[in-house]
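wait is this the right file?? whatever heres the structure
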């Protein structure tokens, strides 16, 4: 699970935090919105997020959101619909704030020692989420994941074990901090315990003790790592569908420059229905440790040791709100003291830079990707663009030794296929996990 939570705080600035709809950007054009339809389709929107128009709220640029209906297992009436869930192909599992589902009285899910399980997930930027594992029926579009283990994010920061927080104070347990009402993780794995299909967190792993930073059980305020069966781990809801359960397709229109908002589709299944067939023109990238290789400016960013998953791997991640890569071309970076705060993680070239890189799968498949990098400070502070939720040229700095993160700008105008590990694939396609576009 790799995430970058970076968004622009608009409180006190001299422009509105628009949510799209009523505003037309003068800086961009977009292609028509994707029009996929069917029971295996969930509408998604890049519109700034749930707190974009609230005082002291956050405007989440380049983030796609969707809704889910969450029900007590087996019920069709004890349900709530939660909107503004961040659509994330770079993580696995539904994670929702406790306040959103408290009325449902969802049953707890136990770890292998028989005590209620809690889940920890941490992200690239040092942020983390902590909360109980509970069971729910999850409806996405016309599909249902029955009795899915989900993470219910705790509203409290007390009692979080240090091996979860890892010294960080970035507990993103409110909508204002996260920029969303939760995360819809529809990544490459069936559960959020990545290694060996979840077996590293299972009592059958052969490990003498459970891994830290994953699952816990608590006695009072003391929480300790715990084993948990694969069936009880926070699950990719798509993998639990009765059909259309082998992957997803993210479909978003092309954005030339910037746009106030864009709408698209999250399509479930690959090769299981007429609307999710893989076209012959698509390039399939087989993976090592859920990563492929990006060759950029004569430097290679890929996994060097598949046994330990070491190396600066590259990946496609709709949950990252920019293109993130090491600054091997010496692009100017933004300053720390700007009208919207510290932007030193973003690139700020004096003029738009047009760049290209080559993506390569483990099987040798290759595809050239062209992209642009714009000045982030100009984008975030110019009234004509400051409330645009979709920015095609937004890019940030990954530190040396880290790979290439193809975030949401990569998805504009490109249908991205995400095949889930261990799920049945149509004849002629490799076993998951893999990406294609």
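ok assuming it is, sequence goes like this
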């Amino acid at each position: 699970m790799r995430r970058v939570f970076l968004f622009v705080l608009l409180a006190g600035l001299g422009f509105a935090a628009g949510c799209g709809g009523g505003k037309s950007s003068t800086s961009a054009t977009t292609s028509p919105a994707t029009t996929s339809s069917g029971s295996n389709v969930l509408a998604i929107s890049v519109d700034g997020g749930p707190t974009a128009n609230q005082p002291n709220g956050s405007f989440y640029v380049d983030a796609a959101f969707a809704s889910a209906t969450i029900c007590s297992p087996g019920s069709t009436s004890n349900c709530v619909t939660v909107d503004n869930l961040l659509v994330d192909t770079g993580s696995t599992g539904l994670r929702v704030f406790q306040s959103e589902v408290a009325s449902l009285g969802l049953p707890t899910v136990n770890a292998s020692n028989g005590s209620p399980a809690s889940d920890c997930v941490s992200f690239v930027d040092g942020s983390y989420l902590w909360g109980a594992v509970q069971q729910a029926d999850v409806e996405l579009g016309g599909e249902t994941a029955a009795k899915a283990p989900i993470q219910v994010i705790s509203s409290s920061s007390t009692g979080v074990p240090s091996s979860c927080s890892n010294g960080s104070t970035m507990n993103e347990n409110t909508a204002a901090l996260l920029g969303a009402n939760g995360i819809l993780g529809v990544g490459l794995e069936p559960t959020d315990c990545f290694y060996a299909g979840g077996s590293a967190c299972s009592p059958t792993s052969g490990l003498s003790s459970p891994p830290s930073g994953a699952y816990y059980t608590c006695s009072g305020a003391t929480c300790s790592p715990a084993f948990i069966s694969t069936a009880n781990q926070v699950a990719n809801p798509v993998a639990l569908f009765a059909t259309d359960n082998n992957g997803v397709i993210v479909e978003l229109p092309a954005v030339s420059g910037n746009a106030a908002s864009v709408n698209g589709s999250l399509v479930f299944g690959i090769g299981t229905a007429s609307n999710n067939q893989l076209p012959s023109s698509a390039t399939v990238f087989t993976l090592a440790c859920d990563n492929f290789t990006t060759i950029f400016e004569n430097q290679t960013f890929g996994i060097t040791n598949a046994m330990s998953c070491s190396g600066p791997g590259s990946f496609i991640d709709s949950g990252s709100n920019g293109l993130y890569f090491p600054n091997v071309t010496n692009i100017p970076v933004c300053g720390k003291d700007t009208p919207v705060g510290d932007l030193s993680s973003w690139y700020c070239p004096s003029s738009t830079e047009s760049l290209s890189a080559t993506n390569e799968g483990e099987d040798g498949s290759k595809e050239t990707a062209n992209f642009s990098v714009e000045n982030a400070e100009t984008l975030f502070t110019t009234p004509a663009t400051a409330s645009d939720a979709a920015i095609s040229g937004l890019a940030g700095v990954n530190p040396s030794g880290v790979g290439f993160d193809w975030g949401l700008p990569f998805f504009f105008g490109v249908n991205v296929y995400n095949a889930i590990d261990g799920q049945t694939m149509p004849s002629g396609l490799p076993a998951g996990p893999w990406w294609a576009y």
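Residues 376-381 form the longest helix (6 residues). so i think its the right one actually
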